[in-house]
Design brief:
heterodimer; A: 327 residues; alpha+beta; Beta-Lactamase; Rossmann fold; 2 domains; 9-stranded mixed beta sheet; 7-stranded antiparallel beta sheet; 20 strands; B: 172 residues; mainly alpha; 6 helices; 85% helix
């Protein structure tokens, strides 16, 4: 069976029977490419597949007319919440504060509704009315093209992956973690530690990674990055530390800590290219002081996951544009 | 001789009927008490343990005996096996299955059914509020049930025996 369909199947266990039924009536070509299922109370069911968006009619036909779409009712919303939370919304307070819930398979459900405040801080979301079910897709093997640049002798280079949103940097990061953890005939396997503040890299559910991140990988789920990095260095003696989206001052301190401790760091940052990134104060300092020895920039100029370039410590290009994976 | 045996049978069965009705009055407060304990445990599991509802139900079901415990065990089973059904529906199914064999009355059943709409569907504070409200409700019903027990339990028991006696006397 096709992978895409398996993942949609996984997701469908959390959907109310009626939604499940409609989705199963979709054409196969659409079903295996679903990226998002968007449900809003009293609004028609919408799906995103490939780069397209469309409403779905009660019989499973795609339509651009919102009036013909199957309407997601309040009752359905209640059922969906029951399913997502396994009938225990009270156990998801942290998740509600962050605005998304990770479910079986590492898929994520983004939520919106009425926010409850306590002393000016978000305490949670009540009356959930909008759901964005994002289907997680793994791209195994994409790190193979960059790994040769990251390995030198026995060391893994401290690497910064720079990319605008939605260009596949987390996907690449996950595959790097997995590849380093498994090892291969030309690269020995390593102890990998992932600090997964937003549960995106490993997609943990109850602390168990739902994505394949390798056999020698330890994951610290939902932990703030800076604290988490220190904890991992002290407690798990990793050889490689994987972190997503650095950007704050304390992250920088933690990265230095890791570098001094002889732990290789592979992390990502938002940005368009190296030049722009060097202008961000905290990153600029890290870059100037030579914390990183490799830079990878991504873009979507020829589709998601295009490698714009790979650079060395002195920001000299090592590799030109290349397509990592095709859709 | 046959007459005496017949009379004995009549008196015996009449007392049994009275005894049964009396037992019903005695059971109701005991079962309400069981429910109160169950709700208390559920509150602990939910508010302090943030235990998923199905597991919390199982815990409660294991520790509360007889019919009351079974409601929770069945509800947990439905939550785990019936995909696509809401919490409320699962709870209601469990109630429908086990309530007829309890001594609980419509008032208690309504309190329980009402819980189905809130269990698991809000944050901890809210859950606590609802559970406590239900408990307060049940406590007042328990008092009422005890008062009824005092009044009727003995009465029905002796009424059964005396009723049997009356029939026997009339027959002779």
């Amino acid at each position: 069976m096709d992978k895409g369909v398996t993942q949609v199947k996984e997701i469908s266990t959390i959907l109310p029977a009626s939604v499940r039924h409609i989705l199963s009536a979709l054409p196969l070509a659409v079903r295996e490419n679903i990226e998002e299922i968007r449900l809003r109370q009293n609004m028609p069911l919408e799906i995103r597949y490939g780069q397209l968006s469309s409403y779905v009619t009660p019989t499973g036909q795609l339509t651009a007319n919102s009036r013909q779409g199957w309407v997601f009712t309040e009752e359905q919303a209640g059922k969906l919440i029951n399913q997502i939370s396994q009938h225990s919304l009270y156990a998801l307070e942290e998740e509600l504060k962050r605005g998304y819930i990770t479910v079986v398979g590492g898929h994520r459900v983004g939520i919106a509704g009425k926010v409850v405040l306590e002393r000016g801080e978000v305490k949670g979301i009540r009356d959930l009315t909008s759901f964005n079910i994002r289907i997680a897709r793994e791209k195994k093997g994409i790190a193979q093209k960059v790994l040769p640049f990251l390995l030198e002798a026995a060391r893994v280079h401290n690497t910064l992956i720079i990319s605008p949103p939605q260009c596949g940097k987390t996907t690449l990061l996950r595959d790097i973690a997995r590849s380093l953890s498994y090892g291969s005939e030309w690269a020995s396997s390593r102890k990998v530690a992932i600090v997964d503040e937003r549960s995106e890299i490993a997609g943990c559910l109850h602390g168990v990674p739902q994505r394949d991140v390798g056999p020698r990988t330890d994951v610290l789920d939902a932990c703030p990055k800076a604290v988490g990095m220190m904890m991992m260095i002290r407690s798990m003696s990793p050889e490689v530390l994987i972190v997503d989206e650095i950007g704050r001052q304390e992250d920088s301190d933690a990265i230095w800590e890791a570098v001094y401790a002889g732990v290789s760091v592979v992390c990502t940052a938002h940005g368009w290219d190296v030049e722009e990134t060097t202008r961000r104060p905290m990153l600029a300092k890290l870059i100037q002081q030579g914390a990183f020895t490799r830079y990878i920039t991504l873009s979507r100029s020829s589709g998601i996951g295009t490698i714009q370039g790979i650079y060395d410590q002195a920001l000299q290009p090592l590799q030109k544009e290349e397509q990592l994976w095709s859709r | 001789m046959v007459k005496v045996i017949g009379a004995a049978i009549i008196i015996f069965s009449a007392s049994m009927v009275g005894w049964q009705i009396g037992k019903y009055y005695a059971l109701r407060p005991i079962q309400i008490r069981g429910l109160l304990m169950a709700l208390q445990m559920l509150e602990t599991e939910i508010v302090y343990g943030a235990t998923p509802l199905s597991r919390a139900f199982l815990q409660v079901g294991r520790r509360i005996q007889a019919e009351i415990g079974q409601i929770f065990t069945s509800a947990a089973e439905f939550l785990l096996t019936k995909e696509g059904l809401g919490t409320q529906e699962c709870w209601q199914m469990a109630l429908n299955r086990h309530l007829p064999s309890t001594a609980l009355r419509k008032t208690e059943r309504e309190v329980l059914a009402g819980l189905g709409h809130v269990l698991g569907s809000s944050d901890r504070e809210d859950q606590q509020k609802h559970l406590r409200l239900a408990a307060t409700h049940l406590r007042s019903l328990e008092e009422e049930a005890r008062a009824e027990q005092h009044r009727y339990e003995k009465m029905y028991k002796s009424l059964g025996f005396l009723g049997g006696l009356l029939v026997v006397i009339l027959m002779f």
